[in-house]
Amino acid sequence: MRERLKLDDFINVEKSKVTGISRQPSPIRIIRDQKQLENVEYFNCLSSMITNDATCAREINPGLP
DSSP string spanning 12-61? Predict the structure, then answer.
C-alpha cells in the first residue's frame, strides 16, 4: 500500500524562512513542530530583492566581473 506524501513531509523548519509583504511590516507567526519559522526582512527571488515593506530599494550584486 502506497503512503500518501503531504506537503508537511517536505517542510524543514531549520531551513524555512518567512516574510510578510506590507507597507507596515510586522512579524508573521508560523509554528511547525512546536518551532517558529524565522522572519526575514528580505529575500532574493529570481535576481530580484523582495523586501517586507513592499519596496524594491535594494540591489543585488551578482558577483560578475
Answer: -TTT-EE----SS------EETTEEPEE-SEEEETTEEEETTS-------
pLDDT digits (tens, 9 = 90+) for 36-51: 889 988 888 777 788 8
pTM of this structure = 0.59
Residue 56's identity, in one-letter code, is C
Give the three cell numbers for residue 54: 513592499
Residue 19 contacts residue 40 (beta carbons within 8 Å): yes
What does the domain layout of the chain look like in residue ranges? 13-51
Measured in degrees and rounded to the nearest 5, phi and psi for residue 23 equal -70, -20
